[in-house]
Amino acid sequence: MHKVLFRRLALIGVGLIGSSLARVCHVRGDIAAEVVATARTATTRQKVLELGLADKVFDSLKETVAEADCVVLCTPVGSYGEIASAIGPALSIGAILTDVGSTKQSVIRDVGPFVPEGVHFVPGHPIAGTEHSGPEAGFADLFKGRYTILTPPPGTDETAVEKVTELWRRAGSIVEIMEPAHHDRVMAIVSHLPHLIAFTICGTADDLEHQSMKDVLRFAASGFRDFTRIAASDPVMWRDIFLNNREALLEMTQRFVEDMTAMARAVRWGEAEYIVDKIERGRHIRKKLIALKQA
Ligand code: NAP
Question: How far is the CA of 237 from the centre of ligand 1 (A)?
Answer without folding.
Answer: 7
